[in-house]
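Input ((apollo) hypothetical protein):
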Amino acid sequence: MPLKFTKTEVARIIRKSDPKKAPGYDLITNPYIQELPESGITFLTSLFNAMTRLQFFPLEWKVAQIVMLLKPERQPEETKSYRPISLLPIPSKIYESLLLQRILPILKEKELIPDHQFGFRSKHATIDQVHRLTKYIMESLEGKAYCASAFLDISQAFDRMWHEGLLFKLKNALPDHLYGILKSFLQQRHFKVQQGEALSDLCPIKAGVPQGSVLGPILYLLFTADLPTSESLITGTFADDTAILATHSDPKIASQILQKGLNDISHWLKKWRIKANETKSVNVTFTLRRGSCPPVTLNNIVVPQADHVRYLGLYLDKRLTWQKHIFT
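Output:
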C-alpha cells in the first residue's frame, strides 16, 4: 500500500470520526472538520502528505491537555480523587488514523504481534483469551496434574514506556519512512493540566505513549512483542495483563518450569525498563489434588499465593468451579 494519502481516505476517516469526542487545547471539534468543503479536504490531504514526506509531526499537535475529573464520592482536596483525561488535537488523531492504516498491513505481513497478545487486535476479545487459558487449565485438571500460574501486575505500562527502547524496536520492525514519522510523533511532546479555569505551564513528556492517541496501543504492542515465551509454558497477554502457566504431574516441577519463565521475564523487564508490581501479582495453583505448587519469585520477590485470581474481569478459582465469579 502506497504511503501517500488520498482525499478519499482523508474524507472517509473524517466521516467516521465521533462528533461527541472532546477537542484538544485548540478547540477544533470533529463537527467543525466534518463541515469542511472539498477545498478543506484537499488542504488537509496535502498537509498530511507533506508531514509524511518530511517526516515531521507539528509541535502544536504534540500538546496534550489534561483535564482532571473528580471520581464519585471522593474528597476534592486529595490528588488521588481525580482521574486525568488526556485530550489531543483532533487533526492529529485524523492523521494517526491514516498512518495506522499503513502500519497494520505491515504488522500482519511480518507477523510482528505475537499470537498470545489479544489486546487492541481485530477479532481478539477478552473472552477469547479467557477461553484459551481456561482450556489449558481444564486439560490440566482432567489429567489430574498441577497447573502453576502467575498473573503479573505491570506498573503504569503505557505511561512509563521507555522512548529510546521503543524507537530501537520500531527501527528494526518498520520501514525507514514510517520509523521517521513515528520518531517525530514521539519526541518533544508536552502536556498542560487544566483544573477549572486554571491552566498549568507546559511540561515535557519524557516517557510513555501519548494517552488518548490512536497509535498508542499499537506502539505498546510493538514494544512488548518480544516478551520471552517458552514451549513448556503457555503465555496469555491482553495489552499489559500478562499470565503465564505451566503444568506437570509433579507440583515441584510445575513450579520450576514457571520459575524459569519468570526469570526470563524478569531479565526482560529490567532490560526494557518495565516495572512489575511483584506484591500485586498473583500465584495460583489450579488442581483437583491436595496441596499447591511451591511458591515462585519475580525479581527475587515472592509472588503472593492465592486460591483465585481476577483476570480480564473474570474470577478463576483453583478448581475452576466459577463459584467465586458467580457469587461475588
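The radius of gyration is 23 Å.
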